[in-house]
Structure formats: C-alpha cells, structure tokens
Amino acid sequence: MLQVKMPEAFKIEYLELPVPEIGDDDVLVQMKRVGVCGSDIQIYHGRHKYMKFPVVQGHEGSGVIVKAGANVGTLKAGDRVTIQPQVFCGECAPCRSGHYNVCKNLKVYGVHTNGMFAEYFPVPASKVLLIPEAMSFDEGSLVEPAAVATGAIRRCGDLSGLNIVVLGAGAIGNLVAQVAVASGARKVVITDIIQKRLDIAAECGIHACVNTRDKKLKEVILEQFGDDEADIIIDCAGVKAIFNEAVAAARCSSKIVVVANYKEPVEIELPLFQRREVDMLGIMMYLREDFERAIDLMARKVVNTSLLISDYFDIRQIDDVYPYIDNNTDTIMKVVIKISE
Ligand SMILES: [Zn+2]
Ligand SMILES: [Zn+2]
Questions:
Q1: Tell me, what's the pLDDT at 82?
Q2: Alpha-carbon span 244 to 225, nearest angstrom
Q3: Whole-prediction pTM value?
C-alpha cells in the first residue's frame, strides 16, 4: 500500500509498504478522504512545537472498514467510518476527570504518531465512529473539524439567547459559527477580512458576516448587538492584533474563547479581564461526544460542510498541496486529499 511520510520539514516520501496487520482490538480502515489542517501546514514548515519527525500526517479522515479484529464487537467490514485521532493514557489527572483531550500524554494521529495519509490505516476500534449512509466520505473527513466546533461550543455552555462573535471565517470559524447558530444563540456574527470566506459563511446561514478590513471589532459589536454587546467572543483567527481588539471589546461579565492555535505568547491587558470579570476559555480538540454531535448535526444538514471544501488533491500529489496552500491562503477553505475512490 501507499503511505506518505514526512521525514523532515518540507520533505515528502511516497512509500510502498505491505498492508498493515491489525491486533484483536483494532480495525483496518481503507482510507477514502483525509482533510489538510492548519496544523499540517505548521508541521510541513517545521513550526509545530509539539511533534517530532518523521511523521505520517493526516488526522481528519473517513474510510471503510475492511477487517475487524477478534475482540471487536459491533464494527465490521463494509462499515463507513470516521476516526477520532486522540490516543490518551486514561490515568493522568485530566484523563481521570474526563478531560482526555488534554491528557498529559496525549498523542494525536498524524502529529505525534502516524496518521492517515496512507491507503490503509490500522486503528483501535474505540477510536472509530460510524457515519450514516447518506453522509459522503468528503463530509466524513470534515467531522473532525466540525468536532472542534462542537467541542468549543460545549465549553461555552448554554448559548440560548446569547450574542456571539466569531473571529475568523476560515473552516474552523465557519463551523464554530454554524454550531453556535444550531445551539440557539440569539445572534451569531462572524468577522474576517477576506470577503470570499464571509460569502461562504453567509451561504451557511450565519446571521451576520462582517468584513473588518476597515472596521474595529468594538464598532462591529455595537452595530450588531447595540448596548447588550457580545456575550461571547470566540477567537478562530489566531492573530495577536485581533486578540487585543477582542480584549478591548469584551463586555463586563462576558467570555473570550481561544480556539485558534497561537504559535507565540500574546501579551494581554490583564486588568481588563479582572475589572470586567471576563472569563477566558482555552479549547483543545474534543471528546467523543463532540464527534457524535458533529455527525448528528451534519447528518441532519443543520451544519453544512459541502461549501467548505475548496480543493481536492490525489494522495500522489501531496507534495503539491503545501506550496499550493501557502500560495493561496486567501481563497482556500479546506483541502481534501483523495486517498481512494
Ligand atoms: Zn485538524
Ligand atoms: Zn492521560
């Protein structure tokens, strides 16, 4: 089988390997579609702080089970699936309290351990979730980013009646905003400086999509929500200057939620957090229940992912993908790799 390995930054190898053996608790998945994530780009550039080369990338995958181990209960060959790409110890304090997404020994497929850029991927059955017949493999590869969104919104608590601003209308921002709408928020506003992303967000049913190229966030918030301002500002942009605007615009008794991956420390005006009683939440991936909710929302077409896929590449063209993404950051939403038909 074909496996695509990154031995070091900027380098890609296509390996021909035997189809992997599986253990009694595993299934073998023939991969169909795997999405490319912002973190994959960081790895390609050698700027991901928490990984070591070599690595086989790919943590946003869908496929079909072709073989199930002896101890695997209900899953069987022919089942269409997506994969929750977290390996956790189950023993550390975060794991014991149910927060295994921040396990002290967390390993993520495609980042800290081999991922799904391969024709076949052996994986414990416990990491696999069924996707419905009506869901395409394209959509199946978007369950993982959608689970980031359902995880983020779960951490925000009950959204009913609240004013929400999502900063950044890339794939994750778009999905977070869609899940916020689906979760009963009074009004969801999404901001970006790239109009194409805002147009897609509008097609996905986000209540207001605002270009902030010539506007301060505070101004947008007052225009959109009036005196009530924003109850929650969710940062999916990952830009220092925008975060500082968010801090300046945060209302008394509100929340700032950090979903974006920052690569460097950000200086913040701490007194504002204290004096206004602003809560700050960090978001790191998801739990299984977030995957389940993502699948449910997508299956019921409450969350629309079809508009998010901007490009497809074949598995044999992976070395073209990263330069393509680097050169087209403004127009790309989500690139999906076709592993097999
Ligand atoms: Zn990802
Ligand atoms: Zn743990």
A1: 98
A2: 20
A3: 0.97
